[in-house]
Specification:
The protein is α/β, with parallel strands linked by helices. The chain has nine helices and eight strands. The longest helix is centred in the middle third of the chain and has 17 residues. The structure holds cytidine-5'-monophosphate. The site of cytidine-5'-monophosphate has 14 residues, from α2, α4 and α8.
Amino acid sequence: MIVAIDGPSGTGKSSTSKAVAAQLGLSYLDTGAQYRAITWWMVHNGIDLGDPGAIAAAAGKPEILSGTDPAAPTITVDGTDVAGPIRTQEVTSKVSAVSAVPEVRTRITELQRSIARSAETGIVVEGRDIGTTVLPDADLKIFLTASAEARAARRSGELKGADVNATREALIRRDAADSSRKTSPLAKAADAVEVDTTELTLQQVIECVVTLVEEKR
Ligand code: C5P
């Protein structure tokens, strides 16, 4: 059972994916964390992020490992735990420039496919291009959406009091960059089920996705 969950930032993808995987005994992969991890490594190593050629040349260098237990997902770069550093404002504001580079996408996509192939009990994979590009044969594809206001309110709540307007502008900018890049942009697969989470609680979204998975089993 492979479940692909895509959608823009702040739609509840991570919380939903983790909870659904835990409830159904599936593995869990946060593909955004992998793009954040490679971005963190590039910042840490002084790669010029204004130069796609420099990003491409460095794309194969760091070793990125993802732990897929939904109760305790992990992410390391060259053996360093980067779960905290990849959530900083600096990485968040730079990740779209790195994730748009085709060499980065090829590298990370291969990693994602190999993790999904080796997940014996099945896996929930969340991201932006899982249903369209990474795992087009997924058993179930879900595309989560929500209004920009709802997404910004959730994100600023997570960031403990961050300004809602500034968060909203940053989200819209990142979604626009992710949706307009040439290589595997953020997009709903033609055969994905769209779930608008604007008016739903997290628990309702989880229940909705669990029901959809059970119908496919
Ligand atoms: O999901 P999260 O907000 O952590 O993703 C961070 C960034 O990683 C996104 O803004 C996007 O640039 C990139 N990403 C991607 N493809 C994915 C997952 C994330 O390009 N499948």
